Amino acid sequence: MSSDPRIRKELKECGPDNGSGVFAVPVGDDIHDLRGEILGSEDTPFQGGIFNIEIKVPVQYPFEPPKMRFITKIWHPNISSQTGAICLDILKDQWSPALTIKTALLSLQALLCAAEPTDPQDAVVAEMYIKNRVEYDRKAKEWTDTYANPSVNSGKIQRVVEMGFEKEKAVKALEENEWDEEKAVNALLGM
Amino acid sequence: MSESDSEEIEYQYSDDSDSDAEETAAPQEDSGDEERKEESKDEKPNPLKTPSGKHTNANPNAPPTGSSRFSLSPDYSSPSSSTEDPRLVPSSSLKGEMLNVLEEIIEMLSIPEEAAGALMRCFKWNKEKLIASYFDDPERCLQKAGVLKRVRMLEDRQDASAPTKTSRPLTPSRTSPRTATRSTPLPPSSPLPQTCLICCDDDLTPSEMYSMPCSHSFCCDCWSGFLGNKIDEGPSCVYAKCPQAGCEEIVSGEEVKAMAPSKISQWDKYELRSFVDLNKNTRWCPGTDCTMVAITKAGVGDVKCSCGTSFCVKCGEEPHTPVVCKDLSLWLEKCQNESETANWILANTKKCPKCATRIEKNQGCNHMVCQQCKHEFCWICVQPWEDHGANTGGYYKCNKFSDKSNSDDQSDAAKAQRELDRYLHYYQRYHAHSQAQKFAKKQLQQTEQRMVQLQDGSAHTSWIDVQFLKTATEQLVECRRVLKYTYTFAYYLDPSDKTGKKERFEHHQEMLEKFTENLSELSEQSLDKMDRTGVVNMTRVVDRFVKNLCKYVEDGMEIED
Ligand SMILES: [Zn+2]
Ligand SMILES: [Zn+2]
Ligand SMILES: [Zn+2]
Ligand SMILES: [Zn+2]
Ligand SMILES: [Zn+2]
Ligand SMILES: [Zn+2]
Predict the structure, then answer these.
(1) Fewer CB within 10 Å: C terminus or N terminus of chain A?
(2) Which residues from A are below 8 Å from B229, CB to CB?
(3) Which candidate in B352, B365, B378, B398 is catalytic?
(4) What pLDDT score does B66 carry?
(5) In this complex, which of A63, A98, A103 lies closest to B244 when CB atoms are compared?
(6) What is the mean pLDDT of residues B345-367?
(7) pLDDT grade, residue B272 (50/70/90)?
(8) pLDDT tens-digit profile of B435-490?
(9) Is the per-residue pLDDT at B27 higher than 50?
(10) Mean local confidence (pLDDT), B188-214
(11) Residue B409, pLDDT score
(12) Residue B44: per-residue pLDDT
């Protein structure tokens, strides 16, 4: 059985502006290579963030789960801060062919609201989540603002870059100075 | 078998005709305790006496439930081998055994055939545990095994055929509408098109749909794709659940037969494989592509398979007396972790300590003689060989670990260094005997070849004349194997032991090591130079020492012989 008719039908139902806070579209012509998007829920450190997800739909789909990975950097116990790999049961052994790409994305959105630090993907993040929740929330928000929010910190980064600094160095200086533009610039100038 | 913490020691020489072999019962009490505990635990619920009414004496042939472990029925084996434990059988011959167990369960619990396999797998083929759980809370037991709907459906059918019987209260599953299956299609008066949630086809007739007893229906093509994919994934397919997300109902052979008939033989194979995998009393022969299975009642012991592989039935590793399975697995893991550190020490060549000529070790014996300067030294410690000899009163003095470093230094780095030194001491010797064991195995093959040649031609030596050499080499392989594991064993002995146990163990080890080196040297001579009587005698002596050492450990290292 070819999975293509089902994928097409699914894509029709989870295109942009479907009102659910998640969507998926093909990257190019291949409907097995998708790009998903999740909005961070309110009252979480991910609020205001837009997270991009790489979605590879295997040939055996839907008998095998879609392979998903965060492209946008995110600070979360069940998602690797390095690779974006996701630890979520329904993307592994709890997958059922009656689930869809949309339900999987919605499960990811739910995962952002309720982390599972006992089954971590990123040990460093999980440890912080358990031992210092305040610091975790702060860092998760910082990462959301830096990497997932086109308006807040990216504006600061943009302004610092425009002053003639490399983007990587600008981000590092801002991070080290708690996103205080003036302090960051002073640091970059060695003052 | 890692769940068991028992310290059972496997006695390879339990068939030793020694009259004092009976005394071995005492140190075994660890395993004995475990057995007794399990027995009393499982004796509580006797299924034949539970107030379930219809199950009374369902199976008069059911074995007593006292034994905690499911044991293969005694009439299964031929009379001659029935006392053999462990024993080996071809896996195909276990199919009947598996079906017998299922039959018993089906009759005892009045459940449909298709539910029995999943139930038994859920309880790792421990019949007593299943029965206890079932009579404690049948609903929960069936739910846990993923067969609740399947069992209830059979009961509903039985109820339907006997409508006067209304004893059971309504369960939610009974009221839920049963959608079409092939066996019970919807009446033709309601030809509403149906939707398959997998392929999203929304124009399907009821006859194109199929469902498991949980009533989640999908189209036949999707069922076939789903089951085929699961079976292709491998042995875990026997745990596949209904395709509906969140549904816990387990797939059975019934669905495979109906929707993926070409895969049924593969499915049957995986069911049998899971029977052997899960059963506490069975273990696959670890030999490459070997399909023999070891069966054991006691759960311990070593077997030799017809494919040539010997293994411990409890852990599947090579027989490893005197080390217990748990320590062996710790040791193997440690060796893997430390392998890089240990490698520098294990180069296959060493410099002669006197003239610095590189010497390659190509024989089993640790007694090295430099071709260049004739200096004799020990391969392991590179000390002069005469220091190891009886004439200096030292015997084989290479087995004891002496902490030469400054043990006053209590810094973490110093402690770690001492621990590493201690490990390397044992690992080096473990590895040396392991290499020597491999060498002796090769030697054994050559001896066997030589025997065949001698049998064919009529040389000066007859076949029977070299039989002694085969026996000697077999003994050598055995000694190297035991010696190898004596170092694993010694590593896990308390280093600060003051009771003298460790010292006595090292004495036995030293003696065995000394005589093994002697036998190794004697049997590595060419045939024409070989001291035949010497080899025969040394083989006997060494055999004695192996048995002594194993017996010493077996006796809990309390009794001096
Ligand atoms: Zn379908
Ligand atoms: Zn179901
Ligand atoms: Zn075998
Ligand atoms: Zn073992
Ligand atoms: Zn030399
Ligand atoms: Zn030595």
Answers:
(1) C
(2) 60, 63-64
(3) B365
(4) 39
(5) A98
(6) 68
(7) very high
(8) 999 999 998 998 888 777 766 655 566 666 778 889 999 999 999 999 999 999 99
(9) no
(10) 85
(11) 67
(12) 39
Catalytic residue among A7, A38, A87, A108: A87
Q: CA A164, CA A27: separation in Å to the nearest integer?
A: 33
Q: Using an 8 Å Cβ cutoff, are B300 and B10 in contact?
A: yes
**Residue linked to tokens 């310290």:** B7
Choose which CATH entry (3.40.640.10, 3.30.559.30, 3.50.50.100, 3.10.110.10) describes domain A4-132.
3.10.110.10
Which of A6, A63, A99 lies at the smallest CB-CB distance from B226? A63
Q: Note whether B260 and B180 are same-domain residues.
A: yes
ipTM: 0.74
Strand (E) or helix (H) holding A104: helix A101-113
Last residue of a domain, one of B213, B248, B279: B279
Q: CA A161 to CA A152: how far, in whole Å?
A: 15
Cα A175 to Cα A120: distance, rounded to the nearest angstrom: 25
Task: Check whether B376 has a pLDDT greater than 90.
Answer: no
Give the total residue count for chain A.
191
Of residues B283 and B43, more confidently modeled: B283
How far is the C-alpha of B402 from the C-alpha of B395, rounded, in Å? Answer: 16
pLDDT band at A120 (very low <50, low <70, confident <90, very high): confident
Dist CA A167 CA A154 (whole Å): 10
Asked if residue B259 lies in contact with residue B224, where contact means CB atoms within 8 angstroms, the answer is yes
> Tell me, what amino acid is at B250?
I
> How far does residue B241's CA lie from ligand 2's centre (Å)?
8
Residues of A in contact with B245 (CB under 8 A): 90, 96, 98-99, 103
Cα Rg of chain A (Å, integer): 19
CA distance A130 to A142: 18
Using a CB-CB cut-off of 8 Å, the residues of chain A touching B244 are 96, 98
Interchain pair A97, B221: CB under 8 A: no
Total Cβ atoms within 10 A of residue B218 = 28
Size of interface A-B (CB pairs under 8 A): 39
Write out the residues surrounding ion ligand 4, Cβ under 5 A: B 312, 314-315, 325
Q: Would you state the CATH architecture of domain A149-188? A: Orthogonal Bundle (1.10)
Answer yes or no: B365 catalytic. yes
How would DSSP label each residue in B203-271?
Answer: -B-GGGEEE-TT--EEEHHHHHHHHHHHHHH-GGGGG-B-SSTT--PBP-HHHHHHH-GGGHHHHHHHH
Q: Around Cβ A80, how many Cβ atoms within 10 Å? A: 20
Q: Read off the pLDDT of residues B142-171 as tens digits, 9 standing for 90 and up.
A: 999 999 999 988 777 776 665 444 444 333
